[in-house]
Amino acid sequence: MQTKITFLGTGTSQGVPLIGCDCEVCISVDAKDKRLRTSIMIERGDTVVVIDSGPDFRQQMLREKVKKLDGLVFTHEHKDHIAGMDDIRAFNFINKKPVNVYCTKQVEIALRREFFYAFENDYPGVPELNIYNFDEDEFVIGDITLLPIKVYHEQLEIRGFKIGDFTFITDANYISEKEKSKIYGSKAMVINALRRNSHPTHFNLTQALFLLEELNIEQGYLIHLSHQMGLHSVVSEELPANRFVAYDGLQIIID
User: Fold this and answer.
1) In the chain, how many domains are there?
2) Domain containing 98 — which CATH number?
3) 166-172 long-range contacts, Cβ below 8 Å, gap at least 24?
4) Is 144 inside any structural domain?
5) For residue range 177-190, what is the model confidence (pLDDT) as tens digits?
6) What pTM does this model have?
7) What pLDDT, in 10s, does the model give residues 42-70?
Protein backbone atom coordinates (compact mmCIF):
# COMPACT_ATOMS: atom_id res chain seq x y z
CA MET A 1 0.00 0.00 0.00
CA GLN A 2 1.41 3.40 -0.98
CA THR A 3 1.61 6.44 1.27
CA LYS A 4 1.08 9.90 -0.21
CA ILE A 5 2.58 12.94 1.49
CA THR A 6 1.30 16.42 0.64
CA PHE A 7 3.27 19.44 1.83
CA LEU A 8 0.53 21.76 3.04
CA GLY A 9 3.00 24.43 4.13
CA THR A 10 6.79 24.70 4.13
CA GLY A 11 7.42 28.10 5.70
CA THR A 12 8.67 29.29 9.05
CA SER A 13 6.54 30.76 11.84
CA GLN A 14 5.95 34.04 9.98
CA GLY A 15 5.48 32.47 6.55
CA VAL A 16 6.90 33.75 3.27
CA PRO A 17 6.48 36.49 2.16
CA LEU A 18 7.11 38.20 5.46
CA ILE A 19 4.85 41.12 6.31
CA GLY A 20 6.45 44.40 5.22
CA CYS A 21 9.52 42.81 3.61
CA ASP A 22 10.75 43.75 0.12
CA CYS A 23 13.62 41.27 -0.19
CA GLU A 24 13.95 39.30 -3.44
CA VAL A 25 12.34 36.23 -1.89
CA CYS A 26 9.34 38.05 -0.46
CA ILE A 27 8.61 39.86 -3.75
CA SER A 28 9.32 36.81 -5.92
CA VAL A 29 6.63 35.89 -8.46
CA ASP A 30 7.61 32.21 -8.28
CA ALA A 31 4.80 30.30 -6.56
CA LYS A 32 7.42 28.06 -4.93
CA ASP A 33 8.62 31.06 -2.92
CA LYS A 34 5.17 31.48 -1.31
CA ARG A 35 5.26 29.47 1.89
CA LEU A 36 2.43 28.90 4.36
CA ARG A 37 3.18 27.68 7.87
CA THR A 38 4.60 24.16 8.04
CA SER A 39 2.21 21.20 7.92
CA ILE A 40 1.87 17.93 6.00
CA MET A 41 -1.01 15.63 5.08
CA ILE A 42 -0.55 11.85 4.99
CA GLU A 43 -2.88 9.61 3.00
CA ARG A 44 -2.70 5.83 3.13
CA GLY A 45 -5.52 3.53 2.16
CA ASP A 46 -8.71 5.26 3.27
CA THR A 47 -7.00 7.21 6.07
CA VAL A 48 -6.22 10.95 6.05
CA VAL A 49 -4.00 12.44 8.76
CA VAL A 50 -2.67 15.99 9.09
CA ILE A 51 0.38 16.85 11.17
CA ASP A 52 0.01 20.33 12.72
CA SER A 53 -2.71 22.90 12.08
CA GLY A 54 -1.09 26.32 12.00
CA PRO A 55 -2.71 29.68 11.24
CA ASP A 56 -3.06 28.68 7.56
CA PHE A 57 -4.91 25.40 8.21
CA ARG A 58 -8.21 26.58 6.67
CA GLN A 59 -6.49 27.84 3.52
CA GLN A 60 -4.50 24.61 3.21
CA MET A 61 -7.59 22.42 3.53
CA LEU A 62 -9.42 24.47 0.91
CA ARG A 63 -6.49 24.39 -1.49
CA GLU A 64 -6.19 20.59 -1.30
CA LYS A 65 -9.99 20.08 -1.27
CA VAL A 66 -9.83 17.91 1.84
CA LYS A 67 -13.21 16.43 2.82
CA LYS A 68 -12.33 14.03 5.61
CA LEU A 69 -9.89 14.04 8.48
CA ASP A 70 -9.22 10.88 10.47
CA GLY A 71 -6.63 12.39 12.76
CA LEU A 72 -4.91 15.66 13.60
CA VAL A 73 -1.46 15.10 15.11
CA PHE A 74 0.60 17.77 16.84
CA THR A 75 4.39 18.02 17.03
CA HIS A 76 4.39 20.72 19.73
CA GLU A 77 2.42 23.63 21.12
CA HIS A 78 3.86 26.70 19.40
CA LYS A 79 1.17 28.88 17.82
CA ASP A 80 2.41 28.38 14.25
CA HIS A 81 1.60 24.67 14.74
CA ILE A 82 -1.70 24.75 16.66
CA ALA A 83 -3.42 28.08 15.90
CA GLY A 84 -5.78 26.73 13.23
CA MET A 85 -7.31 23.93 15.27
CA ASP A 86 -10.62 25.78 15.56
CA ASP A 87 -11.28 25.02 11.88
CA ILE A 88 -11.73 21.32 12.53
CA ARG A 89 -15.37 22.41 13.00
CA ALA A 90 -15.79 22.00 9.23
CA PHE A 91 -14.91 18.31 9.53
CA ASN A 92 -17.28 17.94 12.49
CA PHE A 93 -20.04 19.12 10.17
CA ILE A 94 -18.99 17.11 7.10
CA ASN A 95 -18.09 13.86 8.86
CA LYS A 96 -20.78 14.14 11.59
CA LYS A 97 -18.38 13.26 14.42
CA PRO A 98 -15.58 14.68 16.57
CA VAL A 99 -12.05 14.87 15.15
CA ASN A 100 -9.48 12.65 16.87
CA VAL A 101 -6.55 14.76 18.05
CA TYR A 102 -3.22 13.13 18.99
CA CYS A 103 -0.64 14.95 21.10
CA THR A 104 1.62 14.73 24.12
CA LYS A 105 0.23 15.68 27.52
CA GLN A 106 2.30 18.87 27.30
CA VAL A 107 0.53 19.88 24.09
CA GLU A 108 -2.88 18.95 25.51
CA ILE A 109 -2.34 21.45 28.35
CA ALA A 110 -1.67 24.18 25.76
CA LEU A 111 -4.71 23.22 23.67
CA ARG A 112 -6.97 23.36 26.71
CA ARG A 113 -5.60 26.80 27.52
CA GLU A 114 -5.68 28.28 24.00
CA PHE A 115 -8.99 26.68 22.95
CA PHE A 116 -10.71 26.55 26.33
CA TYR A 117 -14.13 26.99 24.75
CA ALA A 118 -13.77 23.69 22.85
CA PHE A 119 -13.78 21.87 26.18
CA GLU A 120 -16.95 23.50 27.49
CA ASN A 121 -19.99 21.50 26.44
CA ASP A 122 -22.61 24.17 27.06
CA TYR A 123 -21.91 26.32 24.01
CA PRO A 124 -23.05 25.29 20.48
CA GLY A 125 -20.75 25.35 17.47
CA VAL A 126 -17.43 24.83 19.22
CA PRO A 127 -14.86 22.37 17.81
CA GLU A 128 -15.66 18.77 18.73
CA LEU A 129 -12.60 16.64 19.40
CA ASN A 130 -11.35 13.55 21.18
CA ILE A 131 -7.83 13.87 22.60
CA TYR A 132 -5.49 10.89 22.65
CA ASN A 133 -2.09 11.25 24.33
CA PHE A 134 1.09 9.61 23.11
CA ASP A 135 4.67 9.74 24.33
CA GLU A 136 7.29 7.42 22.83
CA ASP A 137 5.30 4.35 21.77
CA GLU A 138 3.93 4.01 18.24
CA PHE A 139 0.23 4.52 17.70
CA VAL A 140 -2.19 3.74 14.90
CA ILE A 141 -4.72 5.91 13.08
CA GLY A 142 -6.63 3.75 10.60
CA ASP A 143 -4.13 2.55 7.98
CA ILE A 144 -1.32 4.77 9.31
CA THR A 145 1.14 3.78 12.04
CA LEU A 146 3.17 6.61 13.57
CA LEU A 147 6.35 6.15 15.61
CA PRO A 148 7.15 9.29 17.65
CA ILE A 149 10.70 10.63 17.40
CA LYS A 150 11.73 12.75 20.39
CA VAL A 151 13.71 15.81 19.26
CA TYR A 152 14.56 19.17 20.78
CA HIS A 153 13.67 22.69 19.70
CA GLU A 154 16.41 24.21 21.85
CA GLN A 155 15.02 23.39 25.35
CA LEU A 156 11.52 22.40 24.17
CA GLU A 157 10.86 18.68 23.76
CA ILE A 158 8.79 18.02 20.65
CA ARG A 159 7.92 15.04 18.44
CA GLY A 160 8.77 14.11 14.91
CA PHE A 161 7.31 10.96 13.38
CA LYS A 162 8.34 7.94 11.36
CA ILE A 163 5.62 6.44 9.16
CA GLY A 164 6.97 3.33 7.44
CA ASP A 165 9.99 4.44 5.43
CA PHE A 166 9.11 8.14 5.77
CA THR A 167 10.35 10.44 8.54
CA PHE A 168 9.07 13.94 9.38
CA ILE A 169 11.04 16.32 11.63
CA THR A 170 10.23 19.98 12.10
CA ASP A 171 11.41 22.69 14.52
CA ALA A 172 14.46 20.83 15.78
CA ASN A 173 18.11 21.55 16.42
CA TYR A 174 19.07 18.39 18.33
CA ILE A 175 18.34 14.67 17.94
CA SER A 176 19.89 12.12 20.29
CA GLU A 177 21.72 9.05 19.03
CA LYS A 178 18.92 6.86 20.38
CA GLU A 179 16.29 8.72 18.34
CA LYS A 180 18.53 8.85 15.25
CA SER A 181 18.62 5.05 15.30
CA LYS A 182 14.84 5.03 14.68
CA ILE A 183 15.27 7.20 11.58
CA TYR A 184 18.34 5.61 10.00
CA GLY A 185 17.91 4.46 6.40
CA SER A 186 14.52 6.04 5.76
CA LYS A 187 13.62 6.22 2.07
CA ALA A 188 12.50 9.82 2.52
CA MET A 189 12.99 12.33 5.30
CA VAL A 190 11.60 15.82 5.81
CA ILE A 191 13.81 18.06 7.95
CA ASN A 192 13.67 21.69 9.00
CA ALA A 193 16.37 23.99 7.60
CA LEU A 194 15.53 27.51 8.67
CA ARG A 195 18.27 29.48 6.92
CA ARG A 196 21.94 29.39 5.91
CA ASN A 197 23.32 30.96 9.09
CA SER A 198 23.22 29.22 12.46
CA HIS A 199 20.16 29.58 14.67
CA PRO A 200 19.67 28.72 18.38
CA THR A 201 16.53 26.59 17.92
CA HIS A 202 16.58 25.22 14.36
CA PHE A 203 18.91 23.28 12.09
CA ASN A 204 20.42 25.47 9.40
CA LEU A 205 21.03 24.35 5.82
CA THR A 206 24.48 22.84 6.46
CA GLN A 207 23.32 20.97 9.56
CA ALA A 208 20.21 19.58 7.85
CA LEU A 209 22.20 18.31 4.86
CA PHE A 210 24.81 16.74 7.17
CA LEU A 211 22.07 14.97 9.13
CA LEU A 212 20.52 13.54 5.96
CA GLU A 213 23.90 12.08 4.99
CA GLU A 214 24.63 10.82 8.51
CA LEU A 215 21.32 8.95 8.60
CA ASN A 216 21.74 7.48 5.11
CA ILE A 217 18.51 9.01 3.81
CA GLU A 218 17.69 8.26 0.17
CA GLN A 219 15.63 11.41 -0.48
CA GLY A 220 15.72 14.48 1.73
CA TYR A 221 13.26 17.39 1.71
CA LEU A 222 13.91 20.72 3.41
CA ILE A 223 11.06 22.58 5.14
CA HIS A 224 10.34 25.34 7.67
CA LEU A 225 12.28 27.76 5.48
CA SER A 226 12.55 31.48 6.15
CA HIS A 227 12.97 34.17 3.53
CA GLN A 228 16.61 34.32 4.63
CA MET A 229 17.30 30.97 2.95
CA GLY A 230 17.02 32.50 -0.53
CA LEU A 231 15.07 31.86 -3.70
CA HIS A 232 13.72 28.34 -4.24
CA SER A 233 15.31 28.17 -7.69
CA VAL A 234 18.75 29.25 -6.46
CA VAL A 235 18.88 26.99 -3.40
CA SER A 236 17.61 24.00 -5.42
CA GLU A 237 20.53 24.30 -7.85
CA GLU A 238 23.02 24.25 -4.99
CA LEU A 239 21.80 21.05 -3.34
CA PRO A 240 23.42 17.61 -3.72
CA ALA A 241 21.66 14.84 -5.61
CA ASN A 242 18.42 13.60 -4.03
CA ARG A 243 18.14 16.64 -1.78
CA PHE A 244 15.22 18.95 -2.48
CA VAL A 245 13.74 22.23 -1.33
CA ALA A 246 10.13 21.30 -0.58
CA TYR A 247 7.38 23.71 -1.59
CA ASP A 248 3.70 24.16 -0.78
CA GLY A 249 1.56 21.66 -2.68
CA LEU A 250 4.40 19.24 -3.42
CA GLN A 251 3.31 15.61 -3.27
CA ILE A 252 5.52 12.55 -2.92
CA ILE A 253 4.68 8.84 -2.91
CA ILE A 254 6.40 6.38 -0.56
CA ASP A 255 6.05 2.69 -1.45
Assistant:
1) 1
2) 3.60.15.10
3) 166/3, 166/5, 166/190, 166/254, 167/217, 168/40, 168/51, 170/38, 170/52, 170/75, 170/81, 170/223, 170/224, 171/38, 171/75, 171/76, 171/78, 171/81, 171/201, 171/202, 171/224, 172/202, 172/203
4) yes
5) 999 999 999 999 99
6) 0.97
7) 999 999 999 999 999 999 999 999 999 99
